[in-house]
User: Fold DUF2971 domain-containing protein from Flavobacterium cerinum.
Amino acid sequence: MYVSNNEISQPEDDTIVWKYLDLSKFLDLLLCKQLFMSRSDKFEDQYEGTFSEPTFEEIRKVSDNNPEFLDEYKTRRKNVVISSWHINEYESYAMWHIFTKNNEGLAIQSTIGRLQEALGPENRYDQYIGEVKYIDYKKEYLPFDNNFFPFLFKRKSFQYEREVRIVSDLSDHNLNINEGVKANVDIHRLIEKIYIHPKSENWYKNLVIQLMQQLGFDFEIEKSDLESDILI
Assistant:
């Protein structure tokens, strides 16, 4: 379901989203039929799950009379897990460079509607989908009347990510979460199309096609044309 609030953008079901990943992570997704969701405090950005300065000042006033209030927010970061996706009508050259290496890797093309269907009601975790809003953490207020808000806001420096997130709060599951958890997912609903790295060799594309055939998947596979020959 979506996180519903005026502060959070809600993409339409037909909004195109992408996930860029290497072959090993892609195969893990296919073989396990589970989507890896990273623990929120394991992301490179140390501000994940934290608050902007104006919000923190307000929270600090509240916590003066209730010290457990702030501790609860700090603990929640260890129990919230996230799967990040990139919103874009087209491929992103920048995302290829950031999330893949050695001219190898893949991009899963999907939609918001497909993500919702793929997660499904049978999943053991409750997931919430929200588009990340980018704000000035020194000046702008970040609402804290919803547990998911700290994980759906990021600093403006990260606007290039154009991120939409699947978020789960596993605080009530009594889990010892190390790097993250795997959530059940319907692979066929999740994946609409697969793109191969634009700078990859032909053998790499053939390898991916062969692996898909051996595993019994018939996804549409296409090599990215970002590096196609010029016409002049």
User: Anything to note?
Assistant: Residues 84 and 131 are 10 Å apart (CA to CA). The helical segments are 23-32, 53-64, 68-76, 93-99, 112-119, 187-190, 202-215.
